[in-house]
Amino acid sequence: MAAIAMPKSSQETLAKREKIVADLQKIVPGEGVICNEIEMRPYETDALTAYRQLPLVVVLPESVDQVSRVLKYCYDNDVKVVPRGAGTSLSGGALPLEDGVLLSMMKFNRILEIDFENRAVVTQPGVTNLGITKAVEYEGFYYAPDPSSQIACSIGGNIAENSGGVHSLKYGLTTNNLLGLEIVLITGEVIRLGGKHLDCEGYDLLALLTGSEGLLAVVTEVTVRVLQKPETARAALIGFPTSEQAGKCVADIIAAGIIPGGMELMDKLAISAAEDFVNAGYPLDVDALMIVELDGPEAEVDDLLQRVSTIAEQNGSSYLRVSQSEEERNTFWAGRKAAFPAVGRISPDYLCMDGTIPRAALPQVLQDMQELSKKHGLRVANVFHAGDGNLHPLILYDANKPGELAAAEAFGADILRLCVRVGGVLTGEHGVGIEKRDLMPEMFTEDDLKQQQRIKCAFDEKQLLNPGKVFPVLHRCAELGIMHVHQGQLPFPDIPRF
């Protein structure tokens, strides 16, 4: 197991564990508090399984009042809190702390209201992403963001990471489909942001909370936008002799003013793994496979498919197959969405990276990644949300072989540095967590990071919510110039204040 630097454990908190557990059991009675070591094991990691740590205690509240009282108790007693959804985070965002309460929101698993007139759903944060679509599909509606883990990931976790999916190119990430939140602050205060209305006055705190990775508040209720399914949707499988040709085709399609519902790219290693796993009918004699989905009125879809086919031919495509039924279209996507677990069949372990680049840089980045693969001596299977430049390289390694995990981590860090170097960013949808935390200075200056941390201080002055994530060095709020009272006196009491 790799070693990472996390906040130093509070020996005072550890010494008071029995009392903390007993106090929390009074707030969340019955089976709502898990303190047995064996029973806490399922919570010791998230989907970044290279890192493991048992929490101080696991708490599963069932009501907003319980969440509020737990957080206020932790605030009053200086106990750290790590919010957790379904635990599918690939960046270590839900990694527990030895001296922290792991606050699982998975008992908040009910859809509260379906409002077709306003095209909105009000749901609790533990409902799965796919569960929202299942609840509204009988009227021809669906929830657009669709991460590959949508069968398991929770909508609360999607908000924490601003998750996307294969259809985010046209329909946006979580932030583009989120209307309102109910959140609980570390002090126990319950506030609401947004709602079913189009917009609201004041600062856009709704956007600020989306992607905040559990550092600012705990989500207890969510209002999302749902959409009507398009009249027609058809997908095309397009194969290329090289990944560089496929990358150029992606850029040319967008440059032509065509915005597909989804546009994904897989390299030869990922194609082979996915085909063996799902039998989606993917061609195995191509080096790169693109899935392009067009949706809308039938005549428009037919025209766009013809234009995409022409662009693909101009870029040297060697294979083209268009779905002829809804079942076939879903099969095309089933292979792509199973690519991550499918790679587990060809490697005992892998790191799933997440970076975003300008689309035009895709051919060069693909070439450079192959050079990095040779440098680090590890294979990489590439899966991309190609239309919006979101890369998901899967670095294959064997944790049982000494040094391979460290090599995989170094390889991943080099890929993320490459993304930043070509004008991209460290993450597209998986978040920073612990995985990319120490790479933040590659993208942000010290002043940039301090300004972001001032926002953290405004919400969580004691820095109890999910510490050790996102920021490589977490400054004390006093160091960042926050106004505070000491022994009943504000700084510079002689200065008039209004």
From TrEMBL:
Entry's transmembrane regions: none
Entry annotated with the keyword Transmembrane: no
GO molecular function: FAD binding; oxidoreductase activity
Keyword annotations of the record: FAD, Flavoprotein, Oxidoreductase
The organism's place on the tree of life at top rank: Bacteria
All residue ranges annotated as the FAD-binding PCMH-type domain in the record: 51-229
The protein's Enzyme Commission number: 1.-.-.-
Listed cofactors: FAD
Pfam families referenced in this protein's UniProt entry, alphabetically: FAD-oxidase_C (PF02913), FAD_binding_4 (PF01565)
InterPro entries reported in the protein's UniProt record: FAD-bd_oxidored_4_C (IPR004113), FAD-bd_PCMH (IPR016166), FAD-bd_PCMH-like_sf (IPR036318), FAD-bd_PCMH_sub2 (IPR016169), FAD-linked_Oxase-like_C (IPR016164), FAD-linked_OxidoTrans_Type4 (IPR051914), Oxid_FAD_bind_N (IPR006094), Vanillyl_alc_oxidase_C-sub2 (IPR016171)
Protein name (database record): Putative FAD-linked oxidoreductase
Organism lineage string: Bacteria, Pseudomonadati, Pseudomonadota, Alphaproteobacteria, Hyphomicrobiales
